[in-house]
Amino acid sequence: EKLSERDGLRVSRETLRGWMTGAGLWLSRKQRRTFHQPRLRREAYGELVQIDGSEHRWFEDRGDPCSLLVFVDDATGRLMQLRFVRSESAFSYFEALALYLKRHGAPVAFYSDKHSVFRVAKKEAKGGQGMTQFGRALCELNIEILCANSSQAKGRVERMNRTLQDRLVKELRLADIGDMEAGNAFLPDFIEHYNARFALAPTRSDNLHRPMNLASDRLKEILCKREQRYVGSQLTFSFERQRIMLEETEVTRGLVGRYVETYAYADGRLDVRWKGHSLPYKVFDKDTRVTHAAITENKRLGDVLAYIKARQEQLPAPKVRTNSEKNGYTPRGRKPGRKTDFMNDPAVIARRRQALSDLDAAE
Predict the structure, then answer these.
(1) Which of 26, 168, 290, 297, CA to CA, is 20 to 30 A from 320?
(2) Could you tell me the CATH number of the domain that includes residue 122?
(3) Of residues 196 and 301, more confidently modeled
């Protein structure tokens, strides 16, 4: 185009492409293709477990779209854990992790993408300890979390997602399953049959999973959202767009200007603690509307929209005043319809004749 526009030289594209190929300035699509060196599998079972979430219409037109959390062992390709959830969030991964630990124990490390559940995007963030809630929980459980630099690096779980979007969707269709609860009840049998057919033998026979000798209450305290909140002069602090007021006691009187620790659980419970002791409090509700122009990740968009829709349905419909109501107009009770022609009304004509007769008699 520029040769024609600036220099008046008109040649076909293929001729020019041939010249450029001969001069080494043009590479075909096949020559431009890049290849990723495949990474060898880990040697032992439980050494590295790849995790990812796949959003899809798993129940087709029988149910709403949702996400499937997938745990795959790198050494054997075994499906370790599957779980249908509304979206990828810290609480949904906490739930799946609790089931994983109960069934298999603790692996050496998990391998994930750079989702905000696993990795703090802002390195300069002032709050927190430089790790996410999920990362903090894994640290307490002595499990490492590694983040892949590209989707090809965790190709096993990516390929597993495509396989499940084919095989699992058809299995759910044959079983006539259309909701997450029934789907989660179906998944253990599917995992067992899949692994019996496709799982590989590891290079080493060692099982590197470690047993979790933790009490149920202790595990719940680990698999929750724990944050620190500054207590103001009125014994109050903000949490999740709510105002929390500590009840005045001998302990709480000395907490002004200090930090308390909040434990938020998946079932909605909130526990406020100071040096391990629970503190009584009251909640003052604020506007629970989703913040205007809030930053929302693509993987959580569907769940956020569903929440917004549910909130909108709970609120009463706004009353819209018409212009007549704004102007103070009140209807007079006349019914709409065709106007009456009073000039041709016999009663009116008779009254007019009578009036004219009375007028003539008066004159």
Answers:
(1) 290
(2) 3.30.420.10
(3) 196
